[in-house]
Amino acid sequence: MKINELLQVYTIGYQIEDVKTVINHDFKIDVSGVTISGKQGEVINMPRWIAQTLESDSHAEIQESDMGIELTQSISKENFQGEELSHLEPDFYIKVRGYMARQSEKEYDKLESLLNTLIRKRLGKLIPRANSMELTADLAKKLSIEERSLYNTIHNNSADFVKQIFGEKH
User: Fold this and answer.
1) Are 111 and 100 spatial neighbours (Cβ–Cβ below 8 Å)?
2) CB 3.0–4.6 Å: which of 26, 48, 92, 107 could bond 103 by disulfide?
3) In which band, very low, low, confident or very high, does the pLDDT at 170 lie, cut at 50, 70 and 90?
4) What is the pLDDT of residue 32?
5) Handedness of CA 85, 154, 116, 91 (dihedral sign)
6) Under a CB-based contact definition with an 8 Å cutoff, are residues 53 and 38 in contact?
7) Where are any strands of DSSP class E within 8-64?
8) Alpha-carbon separation of residue 114 from 67, 69, 97, 118, 122 (angstroms)
9) Using CA atoms, how far apart are residues 117 and 122, in angstroms rounded to an integer?
């Protein structure tokens, strides 16, 4: 499966996950015979895509962990691990992008800076490994889906480059 197709699958999975949502005011919505209702102050678990729609119209507020804190913790883990890669959830970057999209410009810029720092640190560890060895099961568990795809692309391109230089014997 190509990376963009894989990302679509993971993004759909992310969008249909339940998220805690605080209802801002009483409402009742009926769409094609499906009714969604809530009372002010009520906390409801609902699929993220519905919660985002309600939030965009100020009917509700999504309650989820602060990705700024998660990014900062991930950077700290990378620093602590030295040359080893720390563990990231397969959909980590999908979650970060979804969270960032809902933030103010100032907060978005702060998160973008943290995300760039994390990406640079992880690429500095990932690229040399991908250049020299195939992806192992243990390493794959530590990588996001995007990082796994990048790893395999780098590894395959490096191997092709060496074959171009040395021929098929190498």
Assistant:
1) yes
2) 107
3) low
4) 76
5) negative
6) no
7) 18-23, 27-31, 34-38, 43-47, 60-63
8) 10, 10, 12, 6, 12
9) 9
